[in-house]
Design goal:
11 helices; 10 strands; 44% helix
Amino acid sequence: MRKVWKKMTFLASGLTLGLAALGGIGASSAWAGEVVLYSSNQPELLDVIAQGFKEKTGHTMTSVRMGTGEAMKRIAAERANPLCDVFWSGDLSVLDNAKADFAPYKSPEARDLDAGMVDKDALWTASNTHLMVFMVNTELVPEADLPKSWADLLEPRWKGKIVMANPDKSGTAYAQVYGVYKMFGDEGLAKLVDNATILDSSSLVYKGTAEGEFPLGITMEYAAFRYVAGGNKNVKLIYPSDGVISAPEGAAVIKGCKHPEEAQLLVDYLLSKEVEDMIFEKYYRRPARPDAAAIEGLPATSSLNILKAFDPAEASELKNVILSKWKKLVLNK
């Protein structure tokens, strides 16, 4: 009996030493796990994230790409058997409506985020934010005629010269409409509808403006700046002086997911300064972090007049009301 006890003691000591050695490598390297991500981000970015996450943690990330609305429907349909661990990069007004499907997680990477960038119950956290800009084709709009503000854009002289996406189909277009409503009320919505041509998708706005089909498009900073960075000399970005609409996008851990520890590690990774700076530099998606590095050609967030009245939670609450007003205005146009 004593020999057996000695043998068990030796084995236990060896196990302790082995765990200690693993601890020296780092907890994330002690096991190789997996995590499933649903995301609306472009495939090349998701590939970069998967590779970096694997190198950083040893875990494998499998991504399934789909639109934010489709992802929320699928996550809701899978409540009894979640097939996804993390959702990343959806408009916060959409995520706010889907909070019943998210698990609370307060990432240490979120400690320096501004108010409004983290859900009060930590059910979602902003990773990046889209700044809404005027994308102008300078071949069609002389320098002297460039608008400086939303108030300028609502003047009658811009009637028929503006394009934007349908806010009933595009989360970022709804953010634009909500921002105009906060600044100018019902009158502002009416003027915007009167001046703008509504397109079916956001991509038609920036592609058509860059190609000279439209004089001015209301769109996202990153989408417009890709043309500037790519050498298109006819594209100019204007940040409205009376309020730049900043629409954050976020990440959330799925309630009851199969890989909760790996899911939290992935959220930490997505929110880290290293990753957000890389995404900003390569893909021009502006980080939610206030300590983000600047990149050449784009202004620092601190230099812009960001619309303080933009509230993702309120945008979610008012969405049906504002879109109802919008649809009536469009029908009566």
